[in-house]
Fold:
Amino acid sequence: MKARAARLGRALVGQQSREPRNVLVVIFLAIVLAVFSLTIRLSEAVYHLLVGLIPPRIFNAVLQFLFLYLLGLLLVTYRRWRVANKRERELENIISSISPDALLVADPERRIVMCNPSVKQMFGFEPEELLGRTTDLLYGDRRSSQRFHEIYDELARRGYHIGQARGRKRNGSTMPLEIVSGELSGGGVVLLLRDISDRVQAEEALKVSQEKYTAIVNNALVGIFQTSADGKFLMVNATLARLFGFNMPAEFLAKVKSLGPDLFADQGRYKDLERQLAVQGNVSNFEASLQRPGAPANGAFWAALSVRAVRDPGGALLTYEGIIEDISNRRDAEETMRQSLDRLRKATGSIIDVMVMAVEARDPYTSGHQPPTWGCPATRSTASGWPGSSTTWARSRFRPKS
Structure:
């Protein structure tokens, strides 16, 4: 009983719901028939009126012309419709083939009227779900920022605008988007949305790498520089700037223009460096005296330069890269060592002379042989690079009596 009552109730509800539709259909058909009847009667009236005014032959000719004209218009319209339909299919194929970029067409109210299948891969929405929805569903409204006029000004001036926004996927996650907007002549806009997550990550990695490189270069213990092919400075690190009496690399580059005339105390040495670079392409540990433009009171200092030429694949010279190391302390230490060695040679020569002369003077077995052997210490000292005058005092002190 309950099932039968339920079916009866559904039947009644269905009948009640169909009654308004049936009434509307009857009214529509009545209107159509009335319009058709009025059209026929009006046509008959016009026909009789024209027949009475125009000769039958002329009237029939006009009717035939109008028929042929309307038939021609129909054919032209059909061909234009086929061409438009073909172009529409081609456009839809182009839109569908754009992958992985998402292409949208929105009306002036930013409601999506067309999109390609790539929106599913990028945002997780089916294309049918987006039709009629605003673009706020996919990304934040860029016009909400203080620069909301920028997009419209750019569209008016150039016809397109390229910007970035934060996209929102169906699962709630976000991603960086690059949006290319183009204005349509009939109103609305076409939007090309591209996921730039990989590019943003690469840019961040490049930024971190550049920061590390800059830190390594600026904190290096030696001065690092880069010059143009004619010797003009392009880049220096902080160590090199401080080496020449400047606080910052920018200050150095503002006041020092070239390597040779501004830094080399002896321009002849700079010419030697240029000749070696032209022949060898690189020079290592080239020692020269350099001046300090940022601290002239400190005077010149000795430096070791290592420079290499950078060339393009065709062999054309592009830049020079190199390092400069202050070797003043090393040269002072070498000079001190050389002087110490000279004093040691002199002292050693004197000691050897004294010892030999003492032996020859007191050894009874060498009696009568002193003259031949007396000159041996002096000969040895001279052969060793020691001055022979170091034996003068020993000869006067230990010469044997005849």
